[in-house]
UniProtKB/TrEMBL annotation:
<dbReference type="Pfam" id="PF02617">
    <property type="entry name" value="ClpS"/>
</dbReference>
<dbReference type="Pfam" id="PF22960">
    <property type="entry name" value="WHD_UBR1"/>
</dbReference>
<dbReference type="InterPro" id="IPR003769">
    <property type="entry name" value="ClpS_core"/>
</dbReference>
<dbReference type="GO" id="GO:0008270">
    <property type="term" value="F:zinc ion binding"/>
</dbReference>
<dbReference type="GO" id="GO:0000151">
    <property type="term" value="C:ubiquitin ligase complex"/>
</dbReference>
<feature type="domain" description="UBR-type">
    <location>
        <begin position="48"/>
        <end position="119"/>
    </location>
</feature>
<dbReference type="InterPro" id="IPR036390">
    <property type="entry name" value="WH_DNA-bd_sf"/>
</dbReference>
<dbReference type="InterPro" id="IPR055194">
    <property type="entry name" value="UBR1-like_WH"/>
</dbReference>
<keyword id="KW-0863">Zinc-finger</keyword>
<dbReference type="InterPro" id="IPR042065">
    <property type="entry name" value="E3_ELL-like"/>
</dbReference>
<dbReference type="InterPro" id="IPR003126">
    <property type="entry name" value="Znf_UBR"/>
</dbReference>
<feature type="region of interest" description="Disordered">
    <location>
        <begin position="766"/>
        <end position="790"/>
    </location>
</feature>
<comment type="subunit">
    <text>Interacts with RECQL4.</text>
</comment>
<dbReference type="InterPro" id="IPR047507">
    <property type="entry name" value="UBR-box_UBR1"/>
</dbReference>
<protein>
    <recommendedName>
        <fullName>E3 ubiquitin-protein ligase</fullName>
        <ecNumber>2.3.2.27</ecNumber>
    </recommendedName>
</protein>
<dbReference type="GO" id="GO:0016567">
    <property type="term" value="P:protein ubiquitination"/>
</dbReference>
<dbReference type="Pfam" id="PF18995">
    <property type="entry name" value="PRT6_C"/>
</dbReference>
Amino acid sequence: IYSAEMDPLLEKQEEMVQAAIFYPLECYLFGEDPDTFLEKLQQSGISQLCGKVFKGGETTYSCRDCAVDPTCVLCMDCFQNSIHRNHRYKMHSSTGGGFCDCGDTEAWKAGPVCTKHEPGNSECQLNEEVMEHSRRVFPSVVKYIVDMLIWEEEKELPPELTIREKVDSYYCVLFNDEHHSYDHVIYSLQRALGCELGEAQLHTTAIDKEGRRAVKAGHYASCQEAKEEIKRHSENVSQRPLHVEVLHADVMAHQKFALRLGSWLNKLMSYSILFFKILKYWFFTGARKVLHELIFSSFFMEMDYKKHFAVEFVKYYKTLQKEYISDDHDRVLSVTALSVQIFTVPTLARHLIEEQNVITIITETLLEVLPEYLDKNDKFNFQGYSQDKLNRVYAVIYDLRYVLISKPTVWTNRLRERFLEGFVSFLRILTCMQGMEEIKRQIGQHIEVDPDWEAAIAIQMQLKNILLMFQEWCACDEELLLRAYKECHKAVMRCSTNGRSREKTVFHLCGHTLESRPYRVSSDPVSIHLPLSRTLAGLHVQLSKTGTISRLHEFVSPEEFQVELLVEYPLRCLVLVAQVAAEMWRRNGLSLISQVFYYQDVKCREEMYDKDIIMLQIGASLMDPNHFLLLLLQRYELADAFKKIKLTKDQDLIKQCNVLIEEMLQIIIYVVGERYVPGVSNVTKEDVIMREIIHLLCIEPMAHSAITKSLPENENNETGLENVIDKVATFKKPGVSGHGVYELRDECLKEFNMFFYHYTKTQHSKAEHTQKKRRKQENRDEALPPPPPPDFCPAFSNVVRILNCDVMMHILRTILQRAVELETHLWTEAMIQMVWLVLVFPPWLLTGFFSSLNAFAFFVKGMGSSALNAVNVLMLLEKLKRVPQLEAQKDTVIWILQVHNGEISMTGKNKEKAERKRKAEAARLHRQKIMAQMSALQRNFIETHKLLYENTLEAQGKEDAIMEEESISSAIDYSRIALGPKRGPSIAEKEVLTCILCQEEQEVKLESAAMVLSACVQKSTALTQNRSRILELSGDPLFMHPDLPCGTHTGSCGHVMHAACWQKYFEAMQLNFRQRLHVEQIFDLENGEYLCPLCKSLCNTVIPIVPLQAQKINRAKYSSSIKEMLILFATTIYRVGLKVAPNEADYRIPMMTWSTCAFTIQSIAGKPELLNGRRMRILVLSELFSNTEMFQQSLFSISYAVSEEGQFKALCSYLSLPTNLFLLFQETCFCVMMTLWELYPRKRNSLIELPEDYSCLLNQASQFRCPRSSDDEQKHPVLCLFCGAMLCSQNTCCQELVNGEELGACTSHALQCGAGVCMFLKIRECKVVLIEGKTRGCLYPAPYLDEYGETDPGLKRGNPLHLCRERYRKLHLLWQQHCIIEEIARSQETNQIFFGFNWQLL
């Protein structure tokens, strides 16, 4: 049956296999007619589990309110019939391989079953005979499928299948891989087989879709020769050859039948759960797509068998993952992709942790697949890494995330021990990452080649949520948290003491001494990767949050803790960031700058930058405050800067020193002031998110998506934004363009902290400028006081001691002293700002600890030698008010002094606010009183002079009436009649225009050199009344059919140039194009295209400006320049309209010119309103010209002060028509016109009607099947917005050969539907595509918006989308005004990235 592999007759094959094999087999299984039996079986009840397997590109839905985790999804049918349709949901395109979770009670918090799968009648019980037959058939079928799909012999079949004499019939079979591009395979096949392009494309498409393809049939020797040729032509220096095998025809036939048999078995599984109960305990690893679906429809439909399968899966997990990583097939076809269906089931995951130790197995697998990336110190080093391999390794990391995604509510001893064992195993991975890829500052010569840094950062991103989940799991159980902390602490100590020098350096300052290891970030190796230290910081916060920290000494003694060592490495990392900001690492290239960027970026900062700040807070709470600050000074290499040592005069070194001081002060501010972490202070996650949002909106109003991108996501890909956004911001809806934005509520402005630790330097400057500008507009001072933060938790309460220690006072006094002494090169304004903020901390941050003390008392109390420093600091602060360089900060200085003098207290701020409110209310009442007085005076004046007031109104009314009558009489004048035998002479007015190129003015005259308008001539179907008409068969283009199938439109942007200036400009563009042949242009100079010099509109001709003449046109004498431009314009119309080469002598040129004038006027005029009465339609003349700009300008002179009745009379006079409609009927010519309108009424075209809900379009796309393809693979459906046709885009199945060129479905459709210009909606990507011709196109925002007023290209955010009528109207106008080409040109000029796209094959 399947012997004809090269040119199979698919329908005949299917008929034969049904008749010869499947029908007899089903009759044996069921004991009756298969159709009858299966129909009864289907009607007897529907399985509660859906189990639909998703194909690539298919739309899936996840309920944000009810899903247990983001991997729980529904197919479209189940979603439309579930309660989740009215919830907050997301929609995405599936990558393929998963299945619908409808009916899985563990996947949903509510509504686990849709109406289609609700439990109904009891499942039909199969009789014993059917069960017995199934037990005999199914094992043999599965064994046959598996054996054939993993069969490795190329020439022989298994002995039990060899039933006839072997013939010399073979196939050369080419297999798919992920290393060779589509074009490379086509090229190799053409060269090796000598086949045509179309045949090579057909082979390549089939290989990509099915995984393999027979490309040659014949004897063994010829197939072997073809194999060697293909390998030779596909191999090069950077790529291995294609995978080619020579298979016997019998082997190919059996393997193809095995695939078909798998599909048949899969169909039976969908009818009854009892069928797949017979299949239990079968396991295999070699099957691809068919067996993948078979597993979904059998084992995964019953929890007991899913559990058995999961146990076996974990047993072979390491082997399976290693084979997948060394393989080159997509994950969707790998059995390892089933992990998401196993590990995300909470009860199953708990079972696998307890019984199979799955966490340990996954972590050990991760270490075993990356041995080549370990250096001699057992640290990862990803230099020269393989991106393809790492992408496959990420699958193992995902599995660890799946297992941890649901925290347990009940802990057993076995679960606790297994989890801890897995956590210790995970720490071994972090140990290999701790301090990996160390870098050293480059001095002298710039680094030659940037090292690879992307892999290490990418793995850090992948592990971010896993690290957080481990910490949260540990926090669920007190005993587990303490034991995990102990293990993590031991791991950090091991990494920190390796190779540690015993030498000590001694640092003295302010009577305090620090002994530490000699180390300088600027000269010694340093690493930005410290996951162990950061995990320990996270666990420490969990100890504080749960109150378990009181028992920490039972597990880690104070002697073992060594807090200085814990702080050391995170501090080095922060110093590295500071030195990069000071431009000390410029010679290390872009790789370091990129690492520092991601270190502080939202994608990584939770488990990098934030944890380093927390570790410093741990150090500040446990260390002596003076020693802590001495350590900071030493690591920032600022010891000499704060000693009485004469500093260098080198300006570069001074600048570096100043930046380092700024960065150190900033870190001190963060250590003391950044408390919005649950466990560091008593705040909730909602408080943290609200603070983040407030500081983002203090920069500027932002869109919902922009805020979401700036917030970290949790393990469920949620930011928590929706829960709090309405508390802090108000939503402003978008207009026709742009997007909706959130604006910060006024009451939240007081929460602004200028030194918010997640601000970049740019954001800090912008936020400061915005807030100062706002306060200035409110007539307030420009001081930006920080808000009082929450109190520290007891575990961190000692952090504040660093504010009143000797070293801190010395640092502050030194900086202020330099500012007062005007040593301008030794301080900066930013430095002084930070000092002021530190000075604000004592009174503002210690509320609750020292509430009875005023600010100054706090400085003096218990400070010993620091008391004098405190007095000095305040004295210096007084002097700062008189420093001219700090004039802009004067308000802040005054405010700080008021705080420290006790004039403003914590309640004082509220008093100040109340005072401002009182003053504002008094001012409002004062204004209201003045306005009332003015109104009373006006009324009194009118009453007093009532007679004079009435006379004035009466006189004004008479004067207006006289003027109106005069204007009407003057309007109805023969000199103002435009049509008919009484037409008056035209009034020539002087017209002076300015050239946009040379800026010189010129009067438009017949004898002068021509002035021209840039213009674009294009074919158009915007007025067509019959879209089914084929353009090529629509008749002679000179005589347009009443259906108006296609016309030639001329449009202009209206910019004027001298003809000579335009010619010079065009020639310069041609010259520039010749000199830059390697640069792709967005316009075709060969066909006269260019960009308007001013607005950059795409143009292809010019229109000469001719002055208005009283005499007839053919009697006028034009200058040679005007004649030349007229010929150029007419020739362009002829060339574009008829698609022929230019020919000035062709007799059709005049007719084509008049044709484009007629078509363009009709396009401008729009739709005449028609009234139905006695089956006659009457033209309402005012509507005919309502959209005609030229007519409105002409009419203006006769209707500038006329009433509506007067305007109508003037209009009729201008057109030489009677003012009475009944008189109009008596005109013979009008009767003829009405007859024509009766025969050829023209409606206004519009874009197709789109559904309100975008899900309806997705549903329509899911049901779309390509008419030229027999497979069930998901296509790329696009919708033509002109006619509503659904097309199969970017697939070879629908490519057409037009004039010898291969065109994609969209491009070929555009030639018929829009004369080459068309507008499509890519449904699965929610993007509009504009195309023009075969080489140009662009993407345009879809008219569908989410509730936040934003589009969602690619459905990446997945929010529900609804049609925006205003934006769809904008698309309609883009089409009707013939601006699509202009939009494409402007888009391509801005986004040069689209040059690489082959629009011809769209």
